[in-house]
Structures are given as structure tokens and as C-alpha cells.
From TrEMBL, chains A, B:
PANTHER family: HTH-TYPE TRANSCRIPTIONAL REGULATOR RUTR, HTH-TYPE TRANSCRIPTIONAL REGULATOR UIDR. This is TetR family transcriptional regulator. The lineage of its organism: Bacteria, Pseudomonadati, Pseudomonadota, Gammaproteobacteria, Oceanospirillales. Transmembrane segments: none annotated. Residues 2-62 form the HTH tetR-type domain. InterPro entries: Homeodomain-like_sf, HTH-type_TetR-like_transc_reg, HTH_TetR, TetR. GO terms for molecular function: DNA-binding transcription factor activity; transcription cis-regulatory region binding. It comes from Alcanivorax sediminis. PROSITE patterns: HTH_TETR_2. Residues 25-44 bind DNA. The keyword DNA-binding applies.
Length: 233, 233
């Protein structure tokens, strides 16, 4: 990929995350890059092509981080998975934030997205299976399937949920990232009842790592934030 | 409310659910009702006012069904709550399906929505507290909070998730309703680890009541559907 193409994608991603994809035009992107609209069109004929290219990036990054582990899992490996998930959720947050709009606008992207979800859930099943085989969680097959689907729901809905309740956060990166991190905490709540052994011993550490102070009562619902700011700071 | 206003809302709701709010104009609504656009405008000046009126209905219905129980809970009362939730999710599915678009288009609606979420989570906390007090679930305070937030995430994201993966379902009510029902199954997966006593004895019955055959593998991901159709039929 040429360096200009790369820069167009990087800049578009930053603008989409901060301002929302629908508020950003190709002219805005060209302006932010200091290039002419004609130069931009030479690389990407329209905004939809930029969105698609960013989706490909997102997909490659997330699927890459969901490779099943080669060795037995331990609770530290789980941190790796959570951090990878969080990085993807955070880096491409515009995507899930406005998914229905994006899929509606581009049937081809909608099909790619369905394939992507299928790949994610297949890899997710392998990872949860490895967690079970390694004695980190104790689940039967039905619990494992339910856990995986619920984890995917949180993963894919969290950005949009946060944005619906705190649209102001998009302009405040520190707040936005804190809110996004808490999505991982909610995933930990999901698997918590099934944790065994060493993983259970480290539960409190894991919760503390991702828990956003007052996220559900103050930050998420937009109640007075002083207390939350203090605790999170 | 006059009977014409009532009819406008009923017809708009049916069209929004089937075709998506953004594909339905006030002219479509007037045509479906067999009234003139002028008559429609007399009652609702624009589509946003219809969406707001429908949101008020949705809100009243859902909050009404989330009254905390007067007596001790048992597993049958839980069925009542699940059925009420499902009815609201199904009846107003266009709303959560396209939430980000709707909130973006109307800041006043966005504020109402935030107040609504706050009211839902307050009532949800009371209900989960009652479930705990009645010995149906065994949770500490942190688990209860996590469980409630995750239940809300599934409740509010399920319609959009289903629609993103199976946009074709909007035109097939039987499939669409089956997919929506499975959202309740996913909520049962959430609370399952915490169930005790009588409620645990009835777990299989509850799961069977809401489980959509092959939802996660076939229906949800759009894999070949013959097997799913047979099992679900």
C-alpha cells in the first residue's frame, strides 16, 4: 500500500472515530491531509471505499488476534485476548458505533460483515474450548455456546451503546477510552461464574484492570461526573 | 388520542418494523392509511414526531412491565417479565434496530432515551434485587450490577444484531420473531449460573421456551436454513 493510501486511511479512521462517519466527507479528509480532493479520489473513488478498506483492516487485526492458543491457556493469556479485543474495539470504534447505517449503505460490506461474524464466532468457539480444556472455565457445551454469543454481543454492541448514552464522549478521548475499556469488564462479568482455580484467584485483579469507575451509574448514564472523574483519575 | 392519530401510529409502526424507518416516508404512511398527506400533517407535522410518539408508547409499555413485583418472586413471575420484555422488543423492534440513526437525527429524542435507560436500569436493579431476595438467584452486589448491565445490553442490542446479520428477516415475520425470541434465551444464559432452587429446576423448561433452533449457527449467521426450518417449525 502506498504511503498516501496509508495516510488517507489513518486520517479517515481518526476523523470517523472522533466525528462519526456520517459527519465526515471526502473533502474533510482531503483537507485534513492537506491534499487535493482529486488526489484523494485517485486513491479512493468515494467514502464507501475508504470504509471498506478500514473494515478490511479491522477484520484482519481482530481475526489475527483471535488465533487459538498453541499451548495450554492460563489467566495471563486471557489478558492478551482481552487487550487485543479492546485494542480493536477502540481503534475501530466508529464501525460498530454506526453499524446499521454502514451495512445499510453498502450490501457488499454487509455480506463481508456476515462472513466476518461467522469467522469471529468460529474462532471464539475454539478459544472458549481452549479455556475449558485448560481448566480456566468450567462449562458444558450449551453454556459455552451461550457465553460465546453473549461475549460477541457485548463486543459488537458496546461502542454503539456507549455512544447512544454518551455522545459527548466522542470528543473526549480519555472518557471515551475509559468507557470502552469497561466493555471488557462486562465480558469478565459474563465469564466470572464459570471461572475455576487460578483464574478465579486472579478475578479481582482482572476486574480492577478494566472496571470503569462509576461507569454504569454515572458515566454511562450521564449523571453528575465529579465522583466518577475522581475515582477514575 | 383521536382514532386517526392512533391509526397513524399503528400503521407507521408496522411499516417501520417491516421496511426500516429510513425507508418509510410520510407519503408512504398516508398512502397505506388511505388518507391525504395534508390530513397526516394535520396530526403529525413530520416523521420525527411520529417516531417520538412511538418512542413514548414504547417507553410507557416497557417501563409499565418493569414494575417491581409486590410479592415474593418465583420462576413463573420471571416468565411474565421475559414475555413482557419480548413483547416490547418485538413490537418496537425498528427502534433499537436503528437506534444510532434515530438518536442522531433528534437530540431531544436522544435525551429522552438517556432518561429512559436510566429508568430501565433503576427498575431492573429492583427486579434483580427481588429475584435475589426471593432466593431465585444467588449474587453479590457486583454480580448483580454486572448481570443487570449485560441484560440491558442484550435487550437493547439484539434487534440490531439480528438485523445486521439477517436483514432478510424483516420481510419474514415468522423468522424475525423466532430470531427476536432467542434474545430472551441469551438473557437466560446470562442468569443461568446464578439460579438456585426451584428456578434451577425449571431452567430446561425456560431454555426450551425461548431457544431458537439453530439460531446461532444457522439462522443468525445465514448458513443453510433447511435444517433450522425443520427444527423450528
Amino acid at each position: 500500500m502506498t504511503s498516501t493510501k496509508q495516510r488517507i486511511l489513518d486520517t479517515s479512521l481518526a476523523l470517523f472515530n472522533r466525528q462519526g462517519e456520517r459527519n465526515v466527507t471526502t473533502n474533510h479528509i482531503a483537507e485534513a491531509l492537506g491534499i487535493s480532493p482529486g488526489n484523494l479520489y485517485y486513491h479512493y473513488r468515494n467514502k464507501g471505499m475508504i470504509v471498506s478498506a478500514l473494515f478490511d483492516r479491522y477484520q484482519a487485526q481482530l481475526l489475527g488476534s483471535l488465533e487459538a492458543p498453541q499451548e495450554a491457556m492460563n489467566w495471563r493469556v486471557k489478558v492478551y485476548y482481552f487487550e487485543s479485543l479492546l485494542a480493536s474495539m477502540w481503534q475501530f470504534r466508529f464501525f460498530h458505533r454506526d453499524l446499521s447505517h454502514l451495512l445499510h449503505a453498502d450490501p457488499e460490506l454487509a455480506q463481508s460483515y456476515r462472513n466476518f461474524v461467522q469467522a469471529v464466532t468460529e474462532r471464539g468457539a475454539l478459544i472458549f474450548g481452549a479455556l475449558r480444556d485448560s481448566g480456566i472455565i468450567k462449562v458444558d457445551d450449551e453454556q459455552l455456546q451461550g457465553l460465546m454469543v453473549n461475549t460477541w454481543i457485548i463486543m459488537s454492541s458496546w461502542a454503539s451503546l456507549v455512544h447512544g448514552l454518551r455522545p459527548d464522549a466522542a470528543g473526549d478521548e480519555a472518557l471515551d477510552e475509559r468507557l470502552m475499556r469497561h466493555g471488557i469488564y462486562q465480558m469478565i462479568c459474563l465469564e466470572e461464574p464459570f471461572l475455576t482455580g487460578e483464574a478465579r484467584e486472579h478475578l479481582e485483579e482482572m476486574r480492577a484492570r478494566y472496571r470503569g469507575a462509576e461507569v454504569t451509574t454515572s458515566l454511562l448514564l450521564g449523571l453528575p461526573e465529579e465522583a466518577a472523574e475522581e475515582k477514575a483519575g
